[in-house]
Design brief:
Elements lengths: L2 H10 L9 H17 L6 H8 L3 H7 L3 H17 L1 H11 L7 H29 L4 H14 L1 H13 L8 H22 L7 H15 L3
Length: about 220
């Protein structure tokens, strides 16, 4: 399934509160493509309209400003990708599993996020580009992580420390190192240097090996 097909599927998924017309879908899809390629600041509504095959005035009949268009895209899409239900599923898939060792945990976590970014890299790219400039995008996901994921993450790391598999550093430090390392690998492969000839599986295996050896107790 292409990125555009995945985006359309997400837009239409359980859209009880938002009903998209065909023109509106074209606008949103064109905006996603344009924001992803050029960034929010460098994108124009005239360019988005041209790409969507509609008049520029059609955009402003649906969205008062370009920022309203951005928020109307990212907020519902990321709610479906990172909302409470998805966060609970993530906790179940990652933290409610019996692992034989720390490597199994890191492998499950790393490849879970790898599949997520690979499948949704266009929207993730927009979010990462704009999250520092728009508090409306940042705050919900900080709260979501703190409420639904962080405690389980801490508990899991402490368990591996108790088993002697993970170095006895502060738990928050270990979580930071895990997140930064996995996120850095994914950002490099899919968003920063996507045109490089990456061997994705090898990069992920090396990332896992780096974390397991680097955090060994």
């Amino acid at each position: 399934m292409s990125q555009n097909d995945l985006l359309r599927e997400l837009l239409l998924l359980d859209s009880n509160e938002i009903k998209y017309s065909d023109k509106q879908l074209k606008i949103v899809e064109a905006a996603i493509e344009t924001f992803s390629e050029k960034g929010f600041a460098a994108s124009s509504t005239s360019e988005i309209a041209k790409k969507a095959g509609v008049a520029e005035g059609t955009i402003f009949r649906h969205y008062k400003t370009k920022k309203d268009l951005l928020l109307s895209i990212v907020t519902p899409l990321m709610a479906k990708l990172l909302g409470p239900v998805v966060a609970k599923d993530f906790v179940k898939e990652i933290f409610e599993v019996q692992y034989e060792n720390f490597e199994q945990f890191i492998r499950n976590l790393a490849f879970n996020r790898y599949e997520f970014v690979k499948n949704h890299r266009t929207v993730v790219k927009i979010l990462l580009q704009e999250i520092s400039f728009h508090d409306e995008l940042k705050e919900p996901y900080i709260l979501l992580f703190q409420k639904h994921i962080y405690k389980d993450f801490q508990k899991t790391i402490r368990q591996f420390q108790d088993q002697g598999e993970v170095v006895m550093w502060p738990v928050n430090t270990i979580i930071r190192l895990i997140i930064n390392t996995i996120a850095g690998t994914l950002l490099s492969m899919f968003l920063v240097l996507p045109d490089q000839n990456w061997d994705y599986d090898q990069e992920m295996e090396q990332t896992i090996d780096f974390l397991v050896k680097g955090l060994k107790g």
